[in-house]
Specification:
The chain has helices spanning 2-25, 67-70, 76-81, 83-94, 107-123, and strands at 63-66, 99-104, 131-135, 142-148. With 149 residues, the chain is of the alpha+beta class. The chain has a single domain, classed as 2-Layer Sandwich (60s Ribosomal Protein L30, Chain: A), CATH 3.30.1330.
Length: 149
């Protein structure tokens, strides 16, 4: 019985430590706050919004993040350097009454991907209650974003 309490406490301590470390590691994001503008400033990463095999080579309408773009993200700065996320965050900052609808591919991989993305958006200052996460992006390799009331 004492061993199980020790393991639970150890797991809690490890989880909290990891959360604090990740939070502090990504707290140094470059955010340009000039008083009248809350725009996020980043170095741009030139990634093309190309069509995928699942969409027949056609570019889907709206804001779309492809799996191949997401695989390159390893820091808050690289998340914001993705043009679709930079545009999304800056547009949301202009009207914080809107919610961000995130349409993700179904299945276990899609759920893992969207949860990781949502965690990054929260780390970047977007409250989780401002996100609506729904399955059904239309392809296995993309997440689609919309701003809704």
């Amino acid at each position: 019985m004492m061993i199980s309490r020790y393991l639970n406490n150890t797991q809690i301590i490890i989880s909290i430590t990891l959360l604090v470390c990740i939070t502090f590691a990504h707290a140094g994001l470059a955010v340009k706050n000039t008083g009248t503008s809350d725009k996020v400033a980043t170095d741009t990463l030139s990634l093309q919004n190309t069509g995928s095999a699942q969409t027949g080579g056609k570019k889907p309408e709206g804001r779309v993040l492809y799996a191949e773009q997401w695989e390159l993200t390893r820091s808050g700065e690289s998340v914001l350097s993705l043009p679709v996320l930079n545009s999304l965050v800056n547009t949301w900052l202009k009207d914080k009454q809107k919610k961000i609808e995130i349409q993700y591919p179904g299945g276990e991989e899609g759920e893992f991907w969207v949860q990781q993305l949502a965690d990054w958006l929260v780390a970047l200052g977007i409250p989780s209650d401002q996100m609506i996460i729904v399955p059904g992006s239309g392809a296995d390799d993309m997440i689609r974003f919309d701003l809704v009331r």
